[in-house]
Amino acid sequence: MVSSAWRIPRAGGSPIGSPTRGPRAGAPGRRSPPGGGGAGAGGAGRPPPPPRLGRGVADWLCFRGIRDRLGLTRARHALTGGAPLGPDNFKLIRAHAINLKQVYGLTETGLLTTHGDGDVRPETLGRPLPGTEVQISADGEILVKTTSMFSGYFRQPEDTASRWVDGWYRTGDGGMFDEHGHLVYLDRIEEFRPLASGQRFSPSYIETRLRFSQHVRDCCVAGGETAPFPVALVTIDFENVGRWADGHRLGYTTFTDLSQKPQVYDLLASAIEAVNRRVPEWMRVGAFALMPKELDADEGELTRTRKLRRTFVEQRHGGLIAAIQTGAPDFSVETEIVYRDGRRGRVTTTIPIRRISP
Question: Which of 155, 102, 104 is nearest to 134 (CA)?
Answer without folding.
Answer: 104
